[in-house]
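Batch job 17 of 40 flagged for manual review because the log was empty.
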Amino acid sequence: MKLYVTIEEFLYAKRIENQTQRTLRGYKNTLNLYASWLDKKWSIDEIEQIRVSHLKQYVAYHLRMGHKATYVNGIIKIRELTNFYPRPPRGGRQQKQREKPLLLSNYITLCTK
């Protein structure tokens, strides 16, 4: 999926979560700058192409530029985007299916059967 489309979907989800306009602007600016950097440096425009190493290099780039730690910490919000978009397993392997948490209501239902 195109990176800019994923960013827009992510921002829409954050709007639904009732995030403030300031927070939405911060996400939008941070993510669009990252997408632009990925495109210029690595010719990446698909979310599936992004790896953890790209984010690490992006953070290192900002540290070399002399940006403060508070600015760099804001950049780390980018991880939320990659968590937002589920990826298919790499190398054709099946991912382990996580167990769903046992909710109290489900537990009560199981015990009353």
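Reviewer: the log was empty due to a logging misconfiguration, but the result itself is present. The first helix runs from residue 3 to 16. Unflagging and moving on to job 18.
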